[in-house]
């Protein structure tokens, strides 16, 4: 007999769906462009349904130039 307790089932997103894509890029380097046109390059650590994004090792880019570096960065989304 197995002593492992049953794991709760997660709702699976269809293969190729936007939510599946987003799950697959957590932990990878990404570029996020905000409404003002400023880009943030960094390691995606988490995101939520409102598209709030947390990055590590972040660089801020504007007009093709790196303008700042941040250890951690939180970008507030607006999807709701």
From TrEMBL:
Signal peptide annotation: none
Listed GO MF terms: RNA binding
Keyword annotations: Cytoplasm, mRNA processing, mRNA splicing, Nucleus, Ribonucleoprotein, RNA-binding, rRNA processing, Spliceosome, tRNA processing
Stored InterPro entries: Lsm6/sSmF, LSM_dom_sf, Sm, Sm_dom_euk/arc
GO terms under biological process: maturation of SSU-rRNA; mRNA splicing, via spliceosome; tRNA processing
Domain Sm residue range list: 17-80
A single cellular component GO annotation: spliceosomal complex
Subunit organization: Component of the heptameric LSM1-LSM7 complex, which consists of LSM1, LSM2, LSM3, LSM4, LSM5, LSM6 and LSM7. Component of the heptameric LSM2-LSM8 complex, which consists of LSM2, LSM3, LSM4, LSM5, LSM6, LSM7 and LSM8. The LSm subunits form a seven-membered ring structure with a doughnut shape.
Entry protein name: U6 snRNA-associated Sm-like protein LSm6
Organism: Kwoniella dejecticola CBS 10117
Lineage: Eukaryota, Fungi, Dikarya, Basidiomycota, Agaricomycotina
């Amino acid at each position: 007999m197995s002593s492992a307790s049953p794991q709760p089932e997660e709702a699976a997103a269809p293969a190729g769906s936007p939510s599946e894509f987003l799950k697959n890029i957590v932990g990878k380097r990404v570029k996020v462009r905000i409404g003002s046109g400023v880009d943030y390059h960094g390691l995606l650590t988490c995101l939520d349904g409102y598209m709030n994004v947390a990055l590590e090792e972040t660089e801020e880019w504007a007009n093709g130039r790196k303008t700042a570096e941040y250890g951690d960065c939180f970008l507030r989304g607006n999807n709701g």
